[in-house]
Design goal:
Layout (H helix, E strand, L loop, with lengths): L1 H10 L4 H24 L6 H29 L7 H21 L10 H16 L6 E4 L2 E6 L6 E2 L1 H20 L6 H4 L1 H15 L4 H18 L3 H21 L4 H8 L10 H13 L24 H33 L4 H25 L17 H18 L9
Antiparallel strand pairs: 1-2, 2-3
Helix pairs in contact: 3-4, 3-13, 4-15, 5-6, 5-8, 6-8, 6-9, 6-14, 8-9, 9-14, 12-13, 13-14, 14-15
Length: 412
């Protein structure tokens, strides 16, 4: 009935006033598009760009130091630079993508919102299909897709995070006051998050599901939903986590050995106990760059999820603090760009990207230091993973694209 009325309204000839109003709207839209094209030619935010390059460069140096014992062992001494060279290639590709995306008018990203969301769902379903030859299983988790016979592989959850950022930014920016209603501001986004987080969670990839939910929740909050919904969602998530861990007994041992890794230091608590030994052996100043002892096959995942432990061992408390301050500066600068963005769409996308980096960094360092239960989550710009690094740098390009059109700030 509603569609019939709309169709009839479209067939009805427009009055002179309606035609003039439509022309004015079209003219304003063309003026905004022209203004956006002109503003997109502005300079990128140099402090943010420098911080990204610093973290990427330091991350490559630490990856070289942390990975060469494993690479030497796994290649029978033929290529101790295996992980570093692969990561370096993806870093170059990622920086090129960042610069390219940074030159694009970010309004064009609106057209990617729905296709990217649909693509992420399809890829996550492919991972979940039992016996799929494209799905790759490691450490009892199927999180990757790859081409058989090649080393090319990626995590669809990385695509899902980016899809949430762009789709939520596009959709929320158009709703304004309707974001405070349940029908328009809560329900559609909760459905999307439940579907994506559910598909990621069954891989199983608990930390990935947390990142999807966290980024989506923050963007909804910034978009205008009531704080009460956020509190209710946190309580529901806590109850669900308790049910999954302590009732369904999923990953319960991780919680038990998180509280006391020394109870089984050679078994289930080995990862965390070795991580704590690695961090503690660094002391205040560290043992020196490249001089880690724990990376010689004592600490598992030393070049991946637990690379920050090697950072602490080699650079000490001071070096690790400097790196954490660089991450903090990047996150704060990102939020500053979001505050000065030209419109809600740009602001929301930057908030999503920066929240993703901040939340992932916090979770990784929390896991490595024993603040949080052990789960598989990488450290942005540092952990080994070429496609993940490329996507992270591409996301930084989105922030740079928005920064080109920032509102002018008062000098002094």
């Amino acid at each position: 009935m509603v569609q019939q009325k709309r169709a009839a309204a479209r067939r009805r000839p427009l009055s002179r006033e309606e035609a003039l109003a439509r022309q004015e709207r079209q003219q304003r839209r063309r003026e905004k598009e022209e203004e956006s094209r002109e503003l997109a030619k502005g300079p990128i935010d140099l402090p943010f760009f420098i911080l990204v390059l610093l973290l990427t460069g330091i991350g490559l140096v630490m990856l070289l130091s942390a990975s060469f014992p494993s690479a030497y062992y796994e290649t029978d001494g033929q290529n101790p630079l295996y992980y570093f060279t692969r990561q370096g290639v993806f870093a170059i590709m990622g920086v090129a993508a960042m610069l390219f995306i940074g030159k694009i008018n970010y309004q064009r990203f609106r057209g990617l919102a729905k296709p990217l969301l649909y693509l992420s769902v399809i890829l996550l379903i492919l991972v979940a299909i039992p016996g799929n030859p494209l799905a790759i299983t490691r450490n009892n988790a199927t999180r990757w897709l790859g081409i058989p016979g090649t080393s090319l592989q990626f995590q669809p959850s990385e695509i899902a995070k980016l899809a949430v950022i762009i789709y939520f930014g596009d959709s929320i920016s158009k709703k304004k006051d309707r974001m405070r209603t349940f029908r328009y501001g809560i329900l559609p986004y909760v459905i999307i998050l439940v579907v994506l987080a559910g598909l990621v969670g069954i891989e199983p990839h608990l930390s990935g599901a947390i990142l999807v939910l966290g980024v989506g929740a923050v963007m909804m909050l910034v978009g205008g939903i009531h704080w009460g919904w956020v509190g209710g969602a946190i309580a529901a998530a806590g109850g669900l986590l308790y049910f999954v861990v302590f009732v369904l007994d999923y990953n319960r041992s991780r919680f038990e050995y998180w509280l006391n890794p020394w109870a089984d230091a050679q078994g289930s608590g080995y990862q965390l106990s070795q991580s704590l030994l690695t961090i503690g052996s660094g002391g205040l100043l560290g043992v020196g760059l490249g001089k880690s002892r724990q990376k010689f096959l004592y600490l598992p995942e030393e070049h991946n999820d637990f690379i920050f432990a090697i950072v602490c061992e080699e650079l000490g408390l001071i070096g690790a603090t400097v790196i954490m301050l660089l991450f903090a500066a990047l996150i704060l600068r990102g939020f500053w760009i979001a505050l000065h963005a030209r419109d809600r769409f740009g602001s929301l996308m930057v908030v999503g990207v920066v929240t993703l980096v901040g939340l992932q960094t916090f979770l990784n360092i929390g896991v490595v230091t024993g603040l949080l239960p052990t789960t598989g989550i990488s450290l942005p710009f540092f952990s080994y993973g070429g496609t993940a690094l490329s996507i992270q740098l591409a996301e930084m390009g989105i922030v740079l694209s928005v920064s080109r059109q920032m509102k002018p700030t008062k000098a002094g």
